[in-house]
## 1
Amino acid sequence: MSQVLHLNLHREFFAAIANKQKRIEYRRQSHYWRKRLEERKYDTIIFRNGYAKDAPEMLVEFRGLRRYGRGRDAYYAIRLGRILKIRRWPKGRQ
């Protein structure tokens, strides 16, 4: 069974990934993100632009996770692979 990571994004970041300009998504290292990301194996990521029932969605390959920094400046870098599917997002939209 494939494991899916669900993440919500602001429109500008969703558009950058959809236009293949952004290949890494960042999250601050906190207890919340540590629990969701570390020691888990994901195959794909579903990005949503908002919480509405008909919000744009994108399915992207999960290519791995890296940790950077220390203390308050620590963050996760989530490496993105190919875009597998985009729903409710017009082609070429920015």
## 2
Amino acid sequence: MAGARREGADAYQRALGLLVRREHSRRDLARKLAQRGVEPAEAAAAVERLAGQGYQDDQRFAESFARDRTSAGYGPVRIRVELAGHGLSEDAIAGALAACEADWAALARRQVERRWRPAELADPARRRKAVEFLLRRGFDQGDAWSAVRASPDEDGDL
């Protein structure tokens, strides 16, 4: 019995050590504990205990992750897919994207401005490449096409 209690404490300490470094979703935390040889039941108990104590919070993880990805220039489509990959609910994902309060169209324009000069975007092939780039970054088609069509002459805020 003492060995089981020790293993449970070890799982808790390992999970806490992971959370000290950065936020993790419940699913990621349980997966990382399993990779370190922790039994699934012990991992689940440790994650549940940490969540109960407020050390692990899927919504906080989702908001932090979404803010980081937004500041790195990624769009909502990609962020949504990545958050779903972390095992988060649709409600948590929607809440995280709403908490970003990002202007996705402006972010897409900034990404284009960083990589292409307006004269380059006059070429249809380059415009297509720019749109494809934005789509890979997770912007929707409307924002992507608007970003490559926008120019300082057309839109005074660029």
## 3
Amino acid sequence: MDIRTEKPEDLEAVRNLNIVAFGRENEANLVDRLRGIGSTFSFVAVQSYRIVGHLFFSLVTVEGKCSKNLSILGLAPVAVLPNYQRQGIGTLLIREGLKECGRSGVQAVVVLGHPDFYPRFGFIPASRKSLGCEYDVPDEAFMVLELESGALQDCSGTVKYRSEFSLCE
């Protein structure tokens, strides 16, 4: 299994992967809209020359009190082809993606996801760091991970995703 940064020649395969994995075009369209925006990371999992997984990070903001220099990304979406699910590919993508974010100076990552899955990577409910989600979601489903210890110490407010997310529904 090879985890690497998405390349221009991967775009069609990544789009198709997201459609198949989610059973709809919403997430694929979201990735297409976000891809050209700065401060994004897109990773693929390749097995036997085939893209079988995809992970995307995009810039989020905090409406409230935070350092202007805070670099925080949202993790979404994560997709793995159905025949390759439950084999650790999503986990590998997330671990490698988080490492690369940390190496690139990202200080924290938020995720809206399953509260039984994301804590294995160190995510905790964002409310413990005085952060809320702009969407009406259960507290335990909106989580944050500090990649730089203490990055969120003097931060509080509502995390806002890019407007492209509102078109995803």
